[in-house]
Amino acid sequence: MADNGSSSTSAVLSLNKFSNLECKNLHDYLRTRPQNILEKLYNHPTICLAVYRELPELARQYVIRILFVEQPVPQAVVASWGSQAFSKEHVYVSKVLSELSVWQEASIPGGLLGWILSPTFKKNLKITLLGGGKPWSMSSALDTDNKARDVAFLDSYSLERWECVLHYMVGSQQQEGISADAVRILLHAGLMKRDEEDGSPVITRQGFQFLLLDRHAQVWHFILQYLDTVEQRGLDLVECLTFLFQLSFSTLGKDYSTEGMSQGLLVFLQHLREFGLVYQRKRKAGRFYPTRLAINITSSAANKSAPVLDDDTHKGYIVVETNYRVYAYTDSNLQVALISLFTELMYRFPNLVVGVITRESVRQALRGGITADQIIGYLKQHAHEQMLQDSRNPLPPTVVDQIKLWELERNRLTYQEGVLYSQFLSQADYNVLKEYAQTNGHLIWSHKEKRTLVINKCAHDDVKKFWKRYSKGS
Amino acid sequence: MKMNNIELPAEQTPEFSSVDETSLIVVIFDSNPGQKLLRDNPHILTHCLDSIIAFSNSHLMQKAQNKLAVMACHSKKSEFIFPGSGKPLDVRQIDGQYETFTLVEKTIKQNLAKHLAGESPMLNTESLLAGAIAMALCYIARLQRSKSPGCMLNSRILVVTGSSDSAMQYMNYMNVFFTAQKQNVVIDVCALDQHLSLLQQGCDITGGLYLKIPQLQGLLQYLLWVFLPEPPIRQKLVLPPPAKVDYRAACFCHRELIDIGYVCSVCLSIFCKFSPICTTCHTVFKIPPLAVKAKKKKIKL
Amino acid sequence: MDEDDPKEYRWETGYEKTWEAIKEDDEGFLEASIADIIQRAKRKRQSKKVYGTKLGMMRHLYVILDCSESMSSQDLKPTRLICSLKLLEGFMEEFFDQNPISQIGVIIMHNKRAEKIMNLAGNARKHIKSLKNLNKTTLVGEPSLQNGLEMALKSLKSLPTHASREILIIMGSLTTCDPSDINSTIESLKKEGIRCSVIGLAAEVYICKLLADKTGGVYNVILDDSHFKDLLYQQIDPPPAACGQESNLIKMGFPHQMAVEGTEEPLTMCMCHVDSIDEGSKLTTGGYYCPQCYSKYCELPVECRACGLTLVSAPHLARSYHHLFPAMNYKEFAYENQAEICSGCQKQFTENEKEVYKCPNCNNYFCIDCDIFVHETLHTCPGCATNSSTFQLTQTG
Fold this sequence. Notes:
heterotrimer, A: disordered N terminus, B: two-stranded antiparallel sheet, disordered C terminus, transcription regulation (chain A), nucleus (chain A)
């Protein structure tokens, strides 16, 4: 009796061989912090405000409803606030609130379970909303700056600083280099790696993905990576985070005082200055201006970058036509380099680049580890004003769908490890084994005429045992 | 190995629809000192104002891109008290409150004080809410015009008032309601003192919420519970159900609600019984035999 | 044709240098200049609205649509017919929004025949549905203007005299093929006081001009699709009452939904869907009950099928009030720091402001955008409406 010739067939090919760039939002970040840090953070009104704004819509309503309630509210009552049709969302929202320890379970006399807001969180959110408590650290009074900077200046300053970092990443040498500190962060974040030969930093696939993010998401991701290293530098994480969020909730175009800031914070400030998050005329100026990069820094995590009303100057430059042509009105090498990641460039003029999106060019990008969503996101991000007239679909739907299909095309095959069973002596044997494998859900593939089966690898032992028992019995 | 059909990859994390658009709320606060509620007890004004400021700031707290405007409505003049005209105040933090919120509070209080000081001693009890809504609609229309392309702006108007609505403003009310409906502006009404049937119609027409609050003490809680959620989230929450609105017409002659009436073909005035001349447009009607018969029938009813 | 007709043929009017009106702005863009011209045109039309004229509020309008071969021409995209139907859909919606107690009927002309697609009725949804079906009409032959007019005339004749009776013709063809003398038809239309307006899609035609002139309508030829829309939408405002039109008091019912407190409403069937095939009548609670015969309807306005009473709600009537009591026209002034901000939208007036607009009633100043918004959409002057000494003037005088 010929036993099952067990030859392990398919090789494993993990599609996630290369890890993709992982963008955390504030919640993911906080969730991974230890409980005591969370509690410490909630001592600061700014953090409470930032956390509140990042909560899901429904959660925000829940929090505001019980903000002024002193006793725990029965869970059944909270559940009754949401309508039946959205009960799934209610469960999800409750989970988020618990995970972030915004609220805690508390028992109510009478044996019911209730929710109560974390006292620290509640106290400090109230302070943010209604006042009280101590002023934030950077708001000491200042006499008017005789060289006050306006918003336009700050914008161009921050843009220049940030582009400097990006330019360094793609290695285009049109800007001066960046500090060793920034390079260390880039390396730490895995956005760049040391070249194996000469040890100079080169961009990684995550780096390319990073470049395709929108400005806000880039800053946020970068800062998170920076915060990871903050403790190695001997800075206090809580202090830095608090300061970061204070910046985030400051007013653009206004100056703030450095008075009373600790030595550590001053170091932190200098780092932020390098990346363009704040502007300082001189190191010892005693005052600084937050820039647009720092304002509402967390709102990046809301992933869809909704253009802000009136005060945001939207500067899109890409036009995509239904014939897959891409026109980019730009003179920046960086932007051209980014576009060429997924398009085939055709013409280049001083202020305009014309390219075409082809299957090959997109597959090239996909092979490089860029996802279709990232390509589409980038095009949408920088869509020209003309494209935004139809506010819902700034890009031609055909192009969007096609790019997605090109991506799916690569994912047509899924790989599973299996064991081949063949050379059954009789059809009956084959049938018995097939029946058994099928009922247990181990069968991957079978062929009746050839009497061959492929069984899930992890079930191999089990099936083998069954076969032994069966053949003994017969 | 197995071939898969092409299908879109499933989302891993639960992605619940959320509104990422800018949301503008224009609060119209009826601060007319002539209204009954305030004449009886002037201290209520401070209480209401504090609640409204807290509510406004809660709205701004929801999302970074949210926008706010607050108006004060009187009988002679209505004004925007936030953002006021001219340069914004230079505000520095005095306590732990978010700077923007401090600015809102200071600006509102200062401008309202200015507005009240300008009020003539001759008190008029009727607050011209329809006019204030008209101004708010102009303001919203401007923001809609000037917004950058691709940006979505959801606007709504919240009216907080203790005065009654009079039929004198009927036409203005109807004009603003229909305009709001056309512009997709939701009108919410929070009645402090009396039931407001006209404004309730406005809420119904524009899809807003109407609430006559049972007790003034809890004003802030009512505002936060009922009016803070934006219209798109309201369907997810259990909120007071819309009351059935009485759309019956009132006749122009006696101001009484009628079931069957006569309408002038020229000016559409409504009368409860047949008259040979229209009191509004002075048209003379011929008396058709049909109308007389109909009249008889009506008496029978 | 009248000798003193002010509107000559285009080629007879003076040499217009239309291009000179367009000027480049500082950055060399034309858009600002064009937007300016459009706004000016809007204002001009607005200022023509005279306060206090008697209007025909209860309108009965027949839309006669050319469905002849010429409508397949592609000078409007995608074709003349599809473009017209698309615009008509929007028109219908807007028309019923602004004239809630009015009625529209649709007649098409093709192959020398007229065919009634919709009888006079007041339901926008049904109209739009029937318009959508017209997409597939075969466009054959020549139209017959006379047949179309006669068919509309026959139906409009029987209406009570207080109704405003109108015909709107959308004509793609340059010819008409009529069974007898069309002049006699025009005469009888004139006698009945039926106002006929024509929108030409090709070129000016004498007979159309004559028809419009005689019956007090307007005749226009479109320049492009946006002009077409503009002309069509001008028909939404109710015309002045025809001189032969009589006034009358019309009996109407005002149904209300109010259920008796605390009781469940019984399940009932509505009259509107009782005989429709595609969406049958369902048992529902709530609805509007005719105060005369207690038949139920799901929506208003409607004419009661049982007793013929017109059922409306007060806001329906109120929707038309602004035609009768429009907001006062503002006066234009050159900007000389009269005011700091616009009294409507609160816009800060800057040095760039060329003109400001003043309400003669409340003496407040407005920007051009608010001027247009107030008169086109809002119909209430925000300045007047916020002051107790002026808020009612708009209604009485």
